[in-house]
Design goal:
The structure is a single chain. The chain has one domain: Rossmann fold (3-Layer(aba) Sandwich). About 4% of the residues have low confidence. The longest helix has 25 residues. α3 packs parallel to α7 and α5 packs across α8. The protein has 277 residues and is of the alpha/beta class. It comes from Acinetobacter apis. Pfam families: PNP_UDP_1 (PF01048). InterPro entries: Nucleoside_phosphorylase_d, Nucleoside_phosphorylase_sf.
């Protein structure tokens, strides 16, 4: 009788540990970031069991999407806001991965509104060293140089923080490629995302970035969020939809934000389901 009781207790304990272990896994969500309400509201409406949390000026929505744990983060616009929101999200939620998404302006004339760029890398296009010029010699942004041209060699934090280019996580990239065929509002291509606290409307300057940095699009958050994620060693990818493209006169379409959110939710589900196997 004693042996039966002990066996039952051990079995119950193992079941409880399994349940607790499963719950612990479920507590690690994918963070999906968007700067504005037009880049987050649609996703929030798709979540179930939603709980809201505000940290400082940054809003988070915790919930599930088709059974998978997701946290939507409204980072607000700009490199500084995106960095802060990313650090808060990592410290509080300890996520499996982060996806930064939203709208962007085109740098590649071959791309059109509603096309999606999967960021194989993101780059800070707002960090420069200007050439030395005397008073009266003027200024020409097309002659400015990248402030840091070399990637870190020794993987030290102080070197990591000076990086300009951030590569996408391979498993997130694979998940995005799996979701690619299910998007029917435009093309889905791999490309480079350029980020800076600048809104470029000068076509010569846009062409400069496209030629010298190989940028497909530009926006104001991805590279800074990627930088913080890299310092925490959290898997990261940027995914952006073209909302306009000055290089081929494609005008702005506000519905692009919803299209990107649907695509990214599918990427997150694909990623989490593959991680669970």
């Amino acid at each position: 009788m004693f042996k039966l009781v002990m066996k039952s207790a051990i079995a119950s304990g193992l079941v409880l540990l399994a349940i607790q272990s499963h719950a612990a896994v479920k507590q690690q969500p994918v963070i999906i970031q968007g700067a504005l309400d037009i880049e987050t509201d649609h996703m929030v409406q798709k979540l179930k069991n939603v709980k809201t949390k505000k940290m400082g000026g940054w809003q988070f929505w915790e919930g599930t999407y088709e059974g998978y744990p997701i946290v939507i983060s409204r980072t607000l616009m700009g490199m500084g806001n995106a960095s802060a929101a990313t650090a808060l999200a990592i410290e509080h939620y300890h996520p499996k991965a982060i996806i930064n998404q939203g709208t962007a302006g085109g740098h590649d004339p071959k791309l059109h509104v509603f096309d999606i760029v999967i960021g194989t890398s993101s780059i800070n296009i707002g960090a420069f060293i200007t050439p030395k010029k005397a008073v009266g010699e003027g200024s020409n942004a097309l002659t400015w140089n990248k402030s840091f041209n070399l990637l870190p060699q020794n993987n030290r934090p102080e070197e990591e923080s000076r990086r300009l280019i951030f590569q996408a996580d391979a498993k997130l990239l694979a998940a995005a490629h799996q979701s690619q065929s299910r998007y029917n509002k435009g093309k889905v291509v791999d490309g480079v995302i350029g980020s800076a606290d600048v809104w470029n409307n000068e076509l010569d300057r846009i062409n400069y970035f496209h030629t010298n940095y190989q940028t497909s699009i530009e926006e104001m958050e991805t590279a800074s969020a990627a930088q913080v994620a890299s310092l925490y060693h959290v898997p990261f990818i940027g995914i952006r939809v073209l909302s306009n493209n000055l290089t081929n006169q494609d005008g702005y379409n506000p519905n692009t934000g919803v299209a990107c959110q649907d695509f990214v939710l599918d990427v997150a589900k694909t990623y989490l389901s593959s991680k669970a196997k």
